Each structure stands twice: as structure tokens, then as C-alpha cells.
Amino acid sequence: MNDRVAIVGVGWAGFKPRTPDLSYKELMYEAAVRAYADAGVDPRKDVDSFVTVAEDFHEGTSIFDEYVPDQLGAALKSMHTITGDGLHGLATAYMLIRTGQYDVVVVEGHSKASNILTLDNVTAYAQDPVLNRPLRLNTHFVAGLEMHRYLYESGTSLEQCAGVAVKNRYNALKNPLASFGAALSVDEVLGGAPLAWPLSRREASEHVDGAVVMVLASEQKALALAEKPVWIMGVGWCNDSPSLESRDWGSVPYIEKAAQIAYRQAGVKNPWNDVDFAEVDDTYAYKELQALEALGVCGFGEAGALLDEGAFDADGEFPVNVSGGSLGVGHLLDATGLVRALEAVLQLRGEAGPRQLEDVEVGLVQSWRGVPTTSGAVAVLSN
Which of 114, 108, 72 is nearest to 89 (CA)? Predict the structure, then answer.
């Protein structure tokens, strides 16, 4: 058994709405080269195993890990795919090291969303094939239903949800990786084009192309490799009902359960007091508020008021999505959770540039796999 696991290297590439000059393999290769240089490792000699997070429906090919080894330097090495969000891949690598099977594991996630001509139609295949898919429910329509129920049960207002989009897109102006930074008002968000009532188009993240690669190592290896290792103190995930008929629409118990697992490992009793900042899912603006409540940062129905008070601003009591989140940076399909983790690593290493937070020691990261799933993961990271 290895007692502790750290992230010792990170790399990224792309983060643009379209990359017609690059294939997904080239994006992955660029991110991997940066991560290996950051960690000071040679993948052919030093890395024991590789994990990629990918969905075959998005890739257009099955058994996707067969298309990954060349650009990651993983030929003839242990290699497998996690058909889940990026934090699920991070959790897998963490467990491979904690159990003592390996000392160094690489995790990769990517998006080439611009290559998918009918992305909404492909995503709809995630819906139940017997009861839901025949209804031809639009993905955003399902999100709108959940948002409506959340607003009804929690007392959160439309203006507070729009405030998330205002905050995150403004934060993105300080992030060179962000594609959708903007100085918007609440009225501009609510007055923009509708998407699926009560959801407006400016409250939904837009897809970008990109790749993220992370190198994880056991404690002994991490101390030898990295000057500033970022320790994974706890990680948890939970998958609830996939069907639309048998789930809780107003809250997200799967995030609550994932958080409880991660907190128990990390020794977090009260996230408001024990955590310095958070990077959480904001695929849709309301999801950030919903997630913060499920994470126990505040009580159910309280996140909107805290947002109004500025508590979640970059200079607030509990900064949330200083990176700009998916609303500001863009959504990278199954790599989105790794993007949230990437920002946490940069913040904890003091390398976040103009958006760097002061004196941060513990970061909270949360992801959601998207409509129609009730699948999420939580990680607690510390320097």
C-alpha cells in the first residue's frame, strides 16, 4: 500500500472552440509532452500505467484506449479507458497507486467536440432507450426541467442563476485558456436568447477542443520528482439512477454521497472552514449553486444568497470557479473534470497568474458527467 498520492505534473493543449489544424492525437501529444516535462519523467521508462477518459459514442470508435498509446508514449504499457468524467479517471489512477500496484500513472482526457457534426443527437443516446429516447427529448430540455424543479424547491431565483454566468464569464477574462470571458450584466444574461425554459443560452457552457494530461505518483516517487507536489487527500464518486423517472430532480444526492466519501478520507469536517476555494461543475449556471449546496458548502437553498453577497467571488470568503468554469473556459466533454482539477493544481502551486488566490492550501473539485446522468465525482487537493 502507498499512503499518499500526488499530482506531480500537468499539461494541456487547445481550449479553443475549433482546432481544424490539429487532430485529437496532436492535442493529446502536446498536452502529454508538457505534463512529462513538468513532472520530469520519460513515459517509456518511468510511467507504469495509463488511463484515458473517453466515450466511444463521442469518439466514433470503440475500445478507445487502442487509439491512445502512440501519442502518450504508452506503447506496450498497461492502458485502459474509463467511460466516465475526468475525475473518475483521476480516482482510478489514485486507486492504482494507493493499492501498491503502480508508482506512476498518467491520466488523459480530451475533447474534439468540433469534429462531432451532430453532438446533441449523439448525446441523446445516453437517455434510456425504452422510455425516454423515443420521446426525442432535447438534452437542454432535460436540464431546463431540472433547473425549474430546483428553483421551485430551493427558492433560488432566476437572477441568482444568471449571476453565476456573470461571475464566471467575468473571472474568465483573467484566464488565457478561456474562450468565453465577458463582462455581462444579469439583465443581459436573462435577456439573451432562450435555450430551454427557464434556461437561457448564456447560462449554458459551450464546447471547446482541448486535452489535459496529469502525472500521478506515490509519495516516495512524488517527493523525488516534484518540488511542489499537490496531494490528493480524498476522492469519491457516485452514480445514481440513469432514468428520468426515478431520480430526485430538485437536489443532487449523488454529489452529496461522493463528497462524503472524499471528505471522510481527507478529514474535512466543514468545507466552508476547511477548504480555501472550489472548482465545481457549471455546465449550466444553476448547477454551480446546486453543487455547492450538495457539497455542504452551505445549506439547501442558501447558495443564491451567498452569491448575491459576493461570497463566491474571486475576492470573496469562498472563491468558486476563479478559472471561469465551463461557462468561461468552455466545456471539454469528458475531460471537463480534469480542467477543474487543473485549475486547482495551478492555484495550489501558486502558478495561476493574474487570477492567483492568496494563501490557499486546500482546494475542492467537483464534476458531473452531464445530462441525463446522475453521475459525479469529488476530489480534495492540498499543497
Answer: 108
How far apart are the C-alpha atoms of 182 and 197, rounded to whole Å? 23
The full DSSP string for 276-322 is SEEE---SBHHHHHHHHHHTTSS-TT-HHHHHHTTTTSTTSSS-B-T
Cβ-Cβ contacts under 8 Å for 192 (sequence gap 6 or more): 200, 201, 202
- Structural contact between residues 348 and 69, judged by C-beta atoms closer than 8 angstroms: no
Is the torsion defined by CA of 165, 166, 169, 175 positive or negative?
A: negative
Residue 172 near residue 214, CB atoms below 8 Å: no
The pLDDT tens digits of the residues spanning 143-182 come to: 999 999 999 999 999 999 999 999 999 999 999 999 999 9
Number of H helices, E strands in the chain: 16, 11
| DSSP structure class, residue 181 | -
Encode 62-83: b = buried (16+ Cβ within 10 Å), e = exposed. eebbebbbebbbbeeeebebbe
pTM of the full structure:
0.96
Residues with Cβ < 8 Å from 309, sequence gap 6 or more? 316
CA 342 to chain centre: 9
Greatest Cα pair distance in the chain: 56
3-state SS assignment for residue 260: helix
281-291 confidence digits (pLDDT tens): 999 999 999 99
**DSSP per-residue letters across 28-51:** HHHHHHHHHHHHT--HHHH--EEE
* 171 CB-side CA count, 13 A: 30
